[in-house]
Amino acid sequence: PSFLRLRGGLMVATPDLAAAAGSATGHAATAIVKSFNSEGIAFFTQLRTPAALLAAAAVKDAYVLSGKMSEDIQASRSWTFLRDAYLYLQLLTFSTAMTTIFIATHAIVSLQMGKGLSERDHASSLVAMMKSNFAFEYVTARASFMTGLLAFTIAQVRVRARVRVRVRVSGGEHDEEHAHGLLVGEQLEHAPG
């Protein structure tokens, strides 16, 4: 029989290994159970903080492509598509980041309210505690954060790169300067020194 299995990227012991170990030592194999309350709070806090920063960046950049451009660029269907795609990706980023913040806050409050009062935060590992008692919060917070991060990355890399190509094709010097201002985000004005 197989004593080890790969589950969720971790090598875990099967009941056959526990039985074999128990029979070899004469004792039943038991897992050490302890409270993972503070570790659970730290896990959700470490998701909530970057999600708040991601939401702020998405809101700040959501309408950056709505600036003044030449009439021929604004009238084109491709520019409208790019502008709308960028806006929708930023709004998706904001909404998934806010979902992460709300779900993580709920889990943190739940852990803080039950601290020392229940066995809900006791398990053999942090992941075991999350899977058994906070499965919804664990999966939703992680999935929402990664979805928002991917949407933000796609908006920044793909759509902005396409904007740069589109403006260069139009060949206008004013449009090139305006696109550079859009792409840099007017950071030069706020740079120290």
Helix content: over 70%
Mean pLDDT: 75
Described by the principal axes of the CA atoms, the overall outline is: rod-shaped
What is the CA-atom radius of gyration, in angstroms? 25 Å
Compute the separation of the termini in Å: 68 Å
Biggest β-sheet: count, sense, barrel? Answer: 2 strands, antiparallel
What's the tally of helices?
8
Uncertain runs: 183-193
Percent of sequence in beta strands = 5-15%
Q: Give the strand line-up of the largest sheet.
A: 1-2
Order of helices and strands: EEHEHHHEHHHH
Q: In terms of structural class, how would the helical and strand content be classed? A: mainly alpha
Task: Characterise this structure.
The chain is rod-shaped. A hairpin with a 2-residue loop joins strand 1 (4-7) and strand 2. The strands form 2 sheets. It has a two-stranded antiparallel ribbon. It has helices at residues 15-25, 37-61, 71-75, 77-113, 126-133, 135-170, 173-184, 187-190; strands at residues 4-7, 10-13, 34-35, 122-123. With 193 residues, the protein is mostly helical. It starts with a strand and ends with a helix. The longest helix has 37 residues, at 77-113. The protein has 8 helices and 4 strands; from the N terminus they run ββαβαααβαααα.
